[in-house]
Amino acid sequence: MPPINHFILIALNRKSNISTETDQDSDVLTEEGHFFHLVVWNDDINTFEWVTTTLIEVCKHEKEQAEQCTMFIHFKGKYTVKEGDYDTLKAMCNSITERGIGATVETSVA
After folding, report:
1. What whole-number distance in Å separates Cα of residue 1 and Cα of residue 35?
2. Which terminus of the chain is less hemmed in, N or C, by CB atoms within 10 Å?
3. What structural domains does the chain harbor?
């Protein structure tokens, strides 16, 4: 039976489309209990269409997933749109903020 961290990693990989075969850093992050989140923030400037298009182009979301994320961002004030390793999420965060949309990379301890 694999250790519990293996199950956590599989669940996160399924949720965020991270490949366990190519992302060895995830094992280290899982063992330490650190996970990174790309959080997009609501504002009164950007349109639903612009945020949705950005999530499709930057985060590679399907249209329906991007639309759902945009709704959560609007009604909750912020929403985690992607989980993964810091370097990947930081690059995505920079691309999102360059488009005038507020975004941050945050960490949490499991």
Report:
1. 23
2. N
3. 4-109 (3.30.1390.10)
